[in-house]
Amino acid sequence: MWALCSVETRLVQSGFVVRRATSEGSRRAGFTVTPVIYMLGRSRLEVFIYPSESALAADVAKIDTITAAPRGAPNQWGLGMMPTFVRSANLAAVFLTDNPTQAERLTLALTAGAPQP
Question: Model-level pTM?
Answer without folding.
Answer: 0.92
